[in-house]
Specification:
Elements lengths: L1 H23 L4 E4 L9 E5 L18 E9 L5 E6 L2 E6 L3 E6 L5 E4 L7 E3 L2 E3 L2
Antiparallel strand pairs: 1-3, 1-7, 2-3, 2-6, 3-4, 4-5, 8-9
Subcellular location: Endoplasmic reticulum membrane
Organism: Pheucticus melanocephalus
Membrane topology: Single-pass membrane protein
């Protein structure tokens, strides 16, 4: 009887963790300038102030320059990732205008769980 209860608890934990994990992933696909997503894709300028909902997002003010490194694709094409100084995160593509394209071709690939980590106080956290 104890073993059955242990198995049920384990199944419940697996089911719960799978549903929680699915809320962390913003998209299963992304586009980058190279297979490692290290090459800058474009330089954009903020057309509006933006304050993201959590630490995965890049906050900025109108007129600030952002370097884009990847774009979520397929089910969520509205979010791009980029950096402004030392800050890095997601932002809506309609909050910026492209100033300069830096690559010739985009590479589409699967995202990883690590694409959606927050860096707070030198520790990685999921929101």
């Amino acid at each position: 009887m104890s073993r059955i209860l242990d198995q049920r608890i384990l199944l419940l934990i697996i089911s719960f963790s799978a549903s929680v994990q699915s809320t962390k992933v913003l998209s299963k696909w992304k586009k980058c300038g190279d297979p490692e997503c290290e090459k800058a894709m474009s330089r954009v300028q903020a057309t509006t102030d933006y304050l993201g909902p959590d630490c995965r997002y890049l906050n900025f003010k109108t007129g600030e320059e952002i370097i884009v490194y990847s774009k979520l694709s397929r089910e969520n094409e509205n979010l791009w990732t980029g950096s402004k100084g030392k800050d890095f995160g997601y932002f809506p593509r309609d909050a910026v205008k492209v100033e300069e394209v830096l690559i010739g071709e985009e590479v589409e690939m699967l995202t990883k769980e690590t694409d959606f980590l927050c860096l707070n106080e030198d520790k990685y956290n999921f929101e």
